[in-house]
Amino acid sequence: MSKVVVMDHPLIQHKIGIIRREETGSKDFRTLVSEIAMLMCYEATRDLKLADVEIKTPICETTVKELRGKKLAVVPILRAGLGMVDGMLTMIPAAKVGHIGLYRDPKTLEPVEYYCKLPADCANREVFVVDPMLATGGSSAAAIQMLKDKGVKSIRLMCIIAAPEGVKKMQEEHPDVDIYIGALDDHLNEHGYIVPGLGDAGDRIFGTK
User: Fold this and answer.
1) For range 117-128, the mean pLDDT
2) Fewest C-beta atoms under 10 Å: which of 16, 29, 109, 161?
3) 144 Cβ partners below 8 Å, 6+ apart?
4) Helix (H, G, I), strand (E, B) or coil at 9
5) Is residue 104 predicted with pLDDT exceeding 80?
């Protein structure tokens, strides 16, 4: 079964509290989502492999640690996932970025694909799928299945706020994908929104309705 990590870092929790507020405007919301993604990235990459490398400092030769193993990729689920990309790239600037476009049918709540563009070598990378909200889990599960169909084997999911229903669906459909969550909320309402949540993350990031 996949690992589910709910972040308890005080800075993450503080910033999530601010983006939940109805009065937080798009400018501050965008900035905070990016900052939360950066802090979550720090935690979600804690177990990346390191290798010893010999270098020369201005003083002497020494051994330092550098990342080894698979290169990294960030794949946001459009469009809200775009808000997390800059924060991720601040921490891992060499990562490549792919895009998966899905929207949720308002009647069935099922994901519908409309775009997919990935790095050519994505199958050989450690892929971080990012989306601020894990609600029903349909979009995340569909996006990860798309990646698997293209040969990607090493996948992690990062979301800022999750509902238990979404976590359950992810673990049922992708028990090999670890999930990193900023806050685990109570439930979904009859419209498929996370409660207490923060509303529609995409609309709040981009100032749309």
Assistant:
1) 93
2) 109
3) 129, 155, 157, 170, 173, 174, 177
4) coil
5) no
Catalytic residue among 178, 203, 204, 208: 203
Going 151 to 180 to 196 to 167, the CA torsion angle's sign is: positive
Among the options 47, 57, 63, 108, which is catalytic? 108
104 is catalytic: yes
Residue 46 falls in the annotated catalytic set: no
Residues 138 and 130: their CA atoms lie apart, in Å, by 14
**Mean pLDDT, the chain, whole residue set:** 93
Q: Which residue in the list 20, 24, 86, 104 is annotated as catalytic?
A: 104
pLDDT score for 145? 94
In the residue annotation, 185 being an active-site residue is answered as no
Q: Give 64: exposed, middle or buried? Use CB within 10 Å, 0-12, 13-18, 19+.
A: exposed
How far apart are the C-alpha atoms of 137 and 149, rounded to whole Å?
18
Residue range 37-52, pLDDT digits in tens: 999 999 899 989 899 9
DSSP-assigned beta bridge partners for residue 155: 127
- Active site annotation includes 86: no
